[in-house]
């Protein structure tokens, strides 16, 4: 069987895009702590916009030109509001309270089926999970995973998924200086397990029962398209990682959120 290099190609393309544009937020639904898992499927690129959902092919709300237009309109409105405040002789403090517009970023994650073994929270409490879950890996974690896959010198390389060993994804709080910590002030690391052990026949059989990630993302895109075309722009309270999953053909027990 020839090696599937589509993930490597997508990662290379994504890195080029990130170097020429604002980086997407790596906000993830993982709790702060250590998450041990076996990644069972090849990561699939997932782009989404907060409040809208997955970027389906041709999604207007993900179009770079539309995003730029939206930003320019907000910037123009901001300038008008500031000028009006100055004409009204409002104080500098009042003018400073006018919210400056920010650019809307498309969030990039890499979706996988993973067999989550354990979760250790920031207080050291260990929870045994042993469940298949859909996991949206932040781009940096997927990048580290690709490095493990390709590193023959360190003995972490492998050819196909499921991976031959478990990994630990650690989400930790950044050390803040001069300002208060927020939920976005986190960082991720990925550590390879030391023991190579194939998945069991039972685990492999359970994986076969799961709907492929690509199909899940396509259905999520269809749901996002329906909402958008119905005029529910910005109607989702999701952050891109927990979009409403299609209910048919998917066991609710498979949904991690």
Structural description of this entry:
- With 257 residues, the protein is α+β, with helices and mostly antiparallel strands.
- It has two domains: 6-55 and 106-254, no CATH class; 62-96.
- It contains six helices and seven strands; from the N terminus they run αβββααββαββαα.
- The protein has helices at residues 6-19, 64-87, 92-96, 139-150, 201-208, 213-229, and strands at 33-39, 44-49, 53-54, 107-121, 126-138, 167-173, 186-192.
- Strands 1, 2, 3, 4, 5, 6 and 7 form a seven-stranded antiparallel sheet that branches.
- It is globular and about 70 Å long.
- The relative contact order is 0.22.
Tags for this model:
disordered C terminus; globular; 31% helix; single chain; 22% strand; 7 strands; 6 helices; 7-stranded antiparallel β-sheet; alpha+beta; 257 residues
TL;DR of this structure?
It contains six helices and seven strands. With 257 residues, the chain is an alpha+beta fold. Strands 1, 2, 3, 4, 5, 6 and 7 form a seven-stranded antiparallel β-sheet that branches.
Report how far the terminal alpha carbons are from each other.
Answer: 35 Å
Radius of gyration over C-alpha positions, nearest whole angstrom: 21 Å
Number of strands: 7
In the predicted model, the low-confidence regions spanning at least 5 consecutive residues are 19-28, 237-257
What percent strand? 15-25%
Give the total of domains.
2
Query: What structural class do you assign from the helix and strand content?
Result: alpha+beta
Fraction of residues in helix:
25-40%
